[in-house]
Write a structure and sequence with these properties.
Chain A: This is V-type proton ATPase subunit. Chain A: Keywords: Hydrogen ion transport, Ion transport, Transport. The complex is a heterodimer of chains A (about 350) and B (about 775). Chain A has about 350 residues and is mainly α. Chain A is about 65% helix and about 0% strand. Chain A has 15 helices and no strands. Classes of the chains: A mainly alpha (about 350), B alpha+beta (about 775).
Chain lengths: ~350, ~775
């Protein structure tokens, strides 16, 4: 595509970009968080949220209020906004939106399959599924017994289909295989999304590629961390790493050989981006966990995405920021449910 | 001049409300709408305030009421709106009201839940019957095939294996049937094919009548389907897929008798359900009708109560915690009323210690209150849109009442158009109590709110139209023109004299395309037309030049008078705020500058009008050149530096900037008033074009067809006149009149940095249902 998004971007996507920037202004501020900290009950949280852009979103909920009600309503609100964006988008922005939903779809599929494995009813699990990743065929996921079954019968017509190229196998879906499936799907998904952004070029590529690179590397680190002490072989582990990050290829090869956290940290030391992140991690007794540090870095990148104009990254960044905000509110709210000792 | 000239004097008052009487006192205050509360708890977040519990209770009541209204609306029961608004409920009644409402809600929810359940049941049964009816057609085919199963084996006696297999399959032949949403049929069939790899037979048919979804009330089209399959494994899968696509699956009868039995059973059950459902609906209606009687007053009462608690949340407690302290802004004229309201409130609650108030001196700027009536309101809104006036400064709205319609009319001068506008506004004014107009939306609402402005604008346009002598771009000869063409033929002179004086004769008239009337010839010009422009100009080719010169000069004169008036109003402000030096050092120099340059310009214009007559017009100097020369030949002097200069510092800078701004402003503002001329010209030309392009074309056609043609021509003329000349041009003239007021006039004196006085008044609460339902 031609360079110079500023010449034509607004023709197709100007309205939506304006809209998403307006939505971004409705994110909670520092002052709001200070007030949230002062809250003592869920009712307080509700009253405070009423003064923000969330408005009366809990007005029709009958008492008693629970964290899950707040969470569901917040998700619904985000979903409504997202649907609005998506319904008003033109190509290639709509493909971009489809890519964005894919990650939620993967999560939902895996969630449902895990549920089927534990013999839970579909309805019970459906409540937990992320509304952004909802699709009709989703509920039929548990008729499949092997990954290729899953692909052929259920997912062949969904946007997830192209990501199955690496994971067609006849293994029965036990817990480990489901986890492997998730990671493989995610790997293909990230790589495809990265390729899409790269091919799109322009500001979108400049903004989205670093974010996706970071996402890929984060997954590589987390996979490594979680595989310590499991039966996953090092070769298998390497096949799960997404190859679109900064760590590819040497870093990933080193990570595959890592055997404990320190070795992992040593790999990260080779990279200027990740060295400070690992340095910020506290040592067991307290401080931040690796995940917290990654979250912080992600939020930072998403906020910076709003500094540039004429690109799709703002939609991605807004969704991610809103999700982080929802996590914050739920985290804050859930402290009321358990008795504080 | 009274209250419109300056905003009212305000004072800060402290109310000491005994905690037992605070609610009643505020209720009394809210009914009267006298005071504006100041928030004394600005640093306290909304959920930590004193009366948050009560506010929450109000919200709960609001939720219940919204639910009631929603149910009542859904049942199509009319909601009676009371004429009088009930007062806020006494505290004793609140609990009762809450209990009553909660009971009502529980009952209502139960009944509606029952009803929904019944309706869902009914729907299921109906769906089942539909399914049975439709699948019958599929089954007929099956019945035909059925014997072949049994007749097959004897034909193929030798293939025993096949036969037993067939038997086995035949025994396990299963059916799943049900209904599926129309939009999902295709995907459903595809997935069945993919999963079961073709070991199924799907037949489906569209259901002829769409069914209503009891939850959303949506009407959905359904398909009835029948899947036949072999084998248990596949059966499980099929069932799961049915679940996935939210199919409504019903048991499929194996034999014809069973089918008949089921159908009969269903029919009786449906009948039963109908009767039960009707009874439930009747009961629900009764409950709702009863609720509908009181729901309006409850909504208003709860709103008032919530407003009172919001205000109480702004008060602070005194040290003893026995009384609430509120700080309010109150117009001095209303202090007496305020005291009375407090007494009333105390009396009502039967408290022993009455609530009382103190005025306290303050350095803070009070809010601005300008009382308006329905006539002045529109004009005040024009001014407020620019900026709410600072406390006690001169309010331009008073003068805007006349100047605004006048400046508009200068640009919109056409008494035909003006009269139409006047009639329209008059219609609005005469029917202003009509409920349809009061509740109108958007553009109509805008016109309605500005009806008095429109009325004056129309009237003034009629006046300026008369002055311009323009009626739908034509001039009207009311008094007889002051010019005489026949005098140009005067035959009392000798031919030589005639030639010298430029008199006309036959050859002149025949050979010249343009003829000129000469006012210096006796008898040609008999004196000015009594009112406005002489209609003979309508025939003249140099009409435009003449009118331009006239309108341009008029614009400058009007503009300078307007601006000078603004500067003089500034003096009133300085006098009021005791800024003596501002008068000497700002207003007087401003006036001097303005009058010495532009005042002189006006003088020159008027002088030229008065002194030069038709005879001397050829030697009259150009004002423009005179005016420019005045600037081009100033005595150039160099001002030397002198010792002992002191540091003006910032004062000098701001003063210099202000002076430069003012001087440049004066020039550009005066030029800006030329828009009066430009728009007036544009308006006149546009209506002229409309006339020549349409009506004149229509009038020229010969009489037989002309009548037929004239009808559509006149209709088109009327439509274009209204939309282009009245509405579009009117809006543009309105816009420019606003600009002249806001920028050119008001920047001479108006600061507009005030805050509006917003009293705590129940009247400002919306009293409509639609708002809280939405």
């Amino acid at each position: 595509m031609l360079e110079g998004a500023e010449f034509y971007f607004n023709v197709d996507h100007g309205y939506l970009e304006g809209l998403v920037r307006g939505c971004k202004a409705s994110l909670l501020t520092q002052q709001d968080y200070i007030n949230l900290v002062q809250c003592e009950t869920l009712e307080d949280v509700k009253i405070h949220l009423q003064t923000t852009d969330y408005g009366n979103f809990l007005a029709n909920q009958t008492n008693p209020l629970t964290v899950s009600k707040i969470d569901t309503e917040m998700r619904k609100k985000l979903c409504r906004e997202f649907e609005y964006f998506r319904n008003h988008s033109l190509e290639p922005l709509s493909t971009f939106f489809t890519y964005m939903t894919c990650s939620y779809m993967i999560d939902n599929v895996i969630l449902l399959m895990n549920g089927a494995l534990q013999k839970k009813s579909v309805k019970e699990i459906l409540v937990k599924c992320h509304p952004l990743g909802r699709f009709t065929e989703m509920e039929a996921v548990n008729i499949a017994e092997t990954p290729s079954d899953l692909f052929n019968a259920v997912l062949v017509e969904t946007p997830l289909a192209p990501f199955f190229q690496d994971c067609m196998s006849e293994n029965t879906l036990d817990e480990l295989n489901i986890e492997l499936l998730r990671n493989k799907l995610y790997k293909s998904y990230l790589e495809a999304f990265y390729k899409f952004c790269k091919n799109h070029g322009d500001v979108t590529a400049e903004i989205m590629c670093p974010i996706l690179e970071f996402e890929a590397d984060r997954r590589a680190f987390i996979i490594t961390l979680n595989s310590f002490g499991t039966e996953l072989s090092k070769d298998d582990r390497e096949t799960l790493y997404p190859t679109c990050g900064k760590l590819y290829p040497e870093g990933l090869r080193l990570l595959a050989q890592a055997e404990d956290f320190d070795q992992m940290r040593r790999v990260a030391d080779h990279y200027g981006v990740y060295k400070p992140l690992f340095e910020a991690v506290g040592d067991g007794s307290g401080g931040k966990t690796l995940e917290d540090v990654f979250y912080e870095r992600e939020v930072q990148m998403n906020v910076l995405a709003f500094n540039r104009q004429f690109h799709y990254g703002v939609f991605y960044a807004y969704t991610k920021l809103k999700e982080q905000e929802m996590r914050n509110i739920v985290y804050r709210s859930s402290s009321f449910e358990v008795p504080i000792l | 001049m009274g209250s419109l000239f300056r905003s009212e004097t305000m004072c800060l008052a402290q109310l000491f409300l005994q905690s037992g009487t605070a609610y009643e006192c505020l209720s009394a205050l809210g009914e009267k709408g006298l005071v504006q509360f100041r928030d004394l708890n600005q640093n306290v977040s909304s959920f930590q305030r004193k009366f948050v519990g009560e506010v929450k209770r109000c919200e709960e009541l609001e939720r219940i009421l919204a639910y009631l209204v929603q149910e009542i609306n859904r049942a199509d029961i009319p909601l009676p709106e009371g004429e009088t608004s009930p007062p806020a409920p006494p505290l004793k009644q609140v609990l009762e009201m809450q209990e009553q409402l909660q009971k009502l809600e529980v009952e209502l929810r139960e009944v509606t839940k029952n009803k929904e359940k019944l309706r869902k049941n009914l729907l299921e049964l109906i769906e089942y019957t539909h399914m049975l009816r439709v699948t019958k057609t599929f089954v007929k085919r099956n019945v035909e095939f059925e014997p072949t199963y049994e007749e097959f084996p004897p034909l193929e006696n030798d293939s025993l294996l096949d036969y037993s297999c067939m038997q086995r399959l035949g025994a396990k032949l299963g059916f799943v049937s049900g209904l599926i949403n129309q939009g999902k049929v295709e995907a459903f069939e595809k997935m069945l094919w993919r999963v079961c790899k073709g070991y199924t037979i799907v037949t489906y048919a569209e259901l002829d009548e769409p069914l209503e979804d009891p939850e959303t009330g949506e009407v959905i089209k359904w398909y009835v389907f029948l899947i036949s399959f072999w084998g248990e494994q596949i059966g499980h899968k099929v069932k799961k897929i049915c679940d996935c696509y939210h199919c409504h699956v019903y048991p499929y009868p194996n034999t014809a008798e069973e089918r008949k039995e089921i159908q009969e059973g269903l029919n009786t059950r449906i009948q039963d359900l109908y009767t039960v459902l009707h009874k439930t609906e009747d009961y629900l209606r009764q409950v709702l009708c009863k609720a509908a009687e009181s729901v309006y007053s409850h909504v208003i009462q709860v709103k008032k109560m919530k407003a009172i608690y919001h205000m109480l949340n702004m008060c602070s407690f005194d040290v003893t915690n026995k009384c609430l302290i509120a700080e309010v802004w109150c117009p001095e004229a209303d202090l007496h009323e305020l005291r009375r309201a407090l007494e009333e409130g105390s009396r009502e609650s039967g408290a022993t210690i009455p609530s009382f108030m103190n005025t306290i001196p303050t350095k803070e700027t009070p809010p601005t209150l300008i009382r308006t009536n329905k006539f002045t309101e529109g004009f005040q809104n024009i001014v407020d849109a620019y900026g709410v006036g600072s406390y006690r400064e001169v309010n331009p709205a008073l003068f805007t009442i006349i100047t605004f319609p006048f400046l508009f009319a200068v640009m919109f001068g056409d008494f035909g158009h003006g009269f139409v506008m006047f009639l329209f506004a008059l219609l609005l004014v005469l029917n202003e109590n009509h409920p349809r107009l009061n509740q109108s939306q958007e553009i109509m609402r805008m016109f309605f709110n500005g009806r008095y402005i429109l009325l004056l604008m129309g009237l003034f346009s009629v006046y300026t139209g008369l002055i311009y002598n323009d009626c739908f771009s034509k001039s009207v000869n009311l008094f007889g023109s002051g010019w005489s063409v026949s005098a140009m033929y005067s035959s009392s002179h000798t031919p030589a004299e005639q030639k010298k004086m430029g008199l006309w004769n036959d050859s002149v008239v025949r050979h010249n395309r343009v003829l000129q009337l000469d006012p210096s010839i006796p008898g040609v010009f008999q004196g000015p037309y009594p009112l406005g422009i002489d209609p003979i100009w309508n025939l003249a080719t140099n009409r435009l030049t003449f009118l331009n010169s006239f309108k341009m000069k008029m614009s400058v004169i009007l503009g300078i008078i307007h601006m000078t008036f603004g500067v003089i109003l500034g003096i009133f402000n300085h006098l009021h705020f005791r800024k003596k030096f501002n008068i000497y050092l700002v207003s007087v120099p401003e006036l001097l500058f303005m009058l010495c340059i532009f005042g002189y310009l006006i003088f020159m214009i008027v002088y030229k009008w008065l002194v030069y007559s038709a005879e001397t017009s050829r030697v009259a100097p150009s004002i423009l050149i005179e005016f420019i020369n005045m600037f081009l030949f100033p005595a150039s002097e160099t001002n030397g530096l002198y010792s002992g200069q002191f540091n003006f510092g910032e004062i000098l800078m701001t003063q210099v900037i202000h002076s430069i701004e003012y001087c440049l402003g004066c020039i550009s503002n005066t030029a800006s008033y030329l828009r009066l001329w430009a728009l007036s010209l544009a308006h006149a030309q546009l209506s002229d074009v409309l006339w020549t392009m349409l009506v004149r074309v229509g009038l020229r056609v010969d009489t037989t067809y002309g009548v037929l043609l004239l009808l559509p021509v006149i209709a088109l003329f009327a439509v274009l006149t209204i939309f282009i000349l009245l509405i579009m041009e009117g809006l543009s003239a309105f816009l420019h009149a606003i600009r002249l007021h806001w920028v050119e006039f008001q920047n001479k004196f108006y600061v507009g940095a005030g805050t509006k006085f917003v009293p705590f008044s129940f009247r400002l609460l919306s009293s409509k249902f639609s708002d809280d339902v939405a």
